[in-house]
Amino acid sequence: SGNYLMRVLRCKGLTIDNIAFAGGRNGAIYIKGGEDNLIKDCRIVRFGEDVIKLEDGTGHKIQGCFMEQLGCGGIDARGGNRKTLEPSGFVVCDNIIQDFSLYKRTYAPAVLFVGAGMTITHNLLQGSSSSALRIEGNDVDISFNQCFDLVTESDDQGGLDSYYNYSFRRIVLRNNHWRNIRGGMFAGAAAIRFDDIISGHVVSGNIFEDCGGAGFGAVQINGGKDNVISGNLFYDCHYAVSFIPWDEQTWKNKYEWQKSKVDDVDGLGPVYTARYPELK
User: Fold this and answer.
1) Which of 15, 104, 136, 144 has the fewest CB atoms within 10 Å, counting from its CB?
2) Mean pLDDT computed over 17-32
3) pTM of the complete model
C-alpha cells in the first residue's frame, strides 16, 4: 500500500477534518476497508506520490479538500464489485486538485477510479501534463466539474481517459466544463477519450472550450460502440467529435485480444445484460 502520513484501517464513521498535510515523499492518507469515512476540508500539498488512496470499503467521501503541487496523482480510489456491480458508494466532491503529475508526467490523474459505482462532482481539476480523470470500471457519475489546462504535453491522451475493456460501462459525464485541452503532437489530445473498444457511455450537457488537438476532437472515440454524445456545447474546438472507425475484422481481433477481461467479470452474463441491455 506504500507509505502514508495517516493510515485508516477497517474504521467506520471516522472524520478527518480541517487538517493540513504538507511535504511528504510518499502519500498523505490511506483508507482501507471500513464504511462511511470522511476526509473533509483538508489541505494536502507537496507530496511525491498519489496523496489519497481508498481501497475497498464502502461509502467513503472526500469533500472540500485542496490539493496541489503533486509529483504524481491526487486520489486513487478502488472499490465496489465489478462482477456483481455492487457500488463502492465513494464520493469525491467540492475539491480543488491542481498542479499534479509534476514528476510522473503521464498516468497520474487527479482522480483514478477502478471498480463500480462512484460519484465525482463539483470539483476543480486543473494543471497537468496529462489526464485529470482515469476511469476503469462501471456506473460512474461525473458531473458539474471544471477540468482545465490538461494534456499540456502528452500525446494520445484525454482529460478523461478510459482504455481497452469492453466490460467498462455507463460512465456518465453530465454538465462538466472542459477548457484548454489541446496537447497531442502526433495522434492527438481530447477532453474525453474513449480509447480502444470503450463502449456504452454518456456525454451530455457538457461545455467544451478550446479542446482537441492533432487528429482528435474534444471527444475522441476509438472503435467504441453505443456511446451517446448529446446536448453539448463545443466552442473554439479543433473538432467537436472524432472517430477512428474499425471494420468488422478489426473489431473481432481487438475484442479477442482482451476478451479475458470481459470474461473475468462475466461481462456478457445475466448481471451485465440486465443492467446494460445493449449488450444483448
Assistant:
1) 15
2) 97
3) 0.97
